[in-house]
Amino acid sequence: MKTTLLSLAVAAALSFAATAGAAPDATATNAASESVKISASRYHMEPQEFQDYQSSYHLSNGETISFTRQVGRFYTEIKGQPRVEIYAVGPTEFITRTGAHMSFADAGDTLTVSNYERLPMLAKLPANTTVMAKR
Q: Signal peptide position in this chain (predicted)?
């Protein structure tokens, strides 16, 4: 009788463990189905505001980067690479969809590009690369 009860207890425990392992965890399911959208606040920049930045800059790493405007959109391009749309997030700051950040100072005479490696380029650079330029 002891072995029968012990066998039933073990079978019940194994059955419970199998059921618990197979049942999805409601917390994990909800967490996996949720998504987070992170976006920087946009800044409405008038075309005449962009004129201070519409130029070419010789960066500290020897590359040349230029800024242009076309039909109300703003772009940057590293010489020889595809151009990339940039988005104003402040009166002197822009970002790309991939996370490169451009910041102008001194009425557009000074440029700092953070996360430069996130711009399209042939060379692979380390994360958080920053380059600077002065007109």
A: 1-22
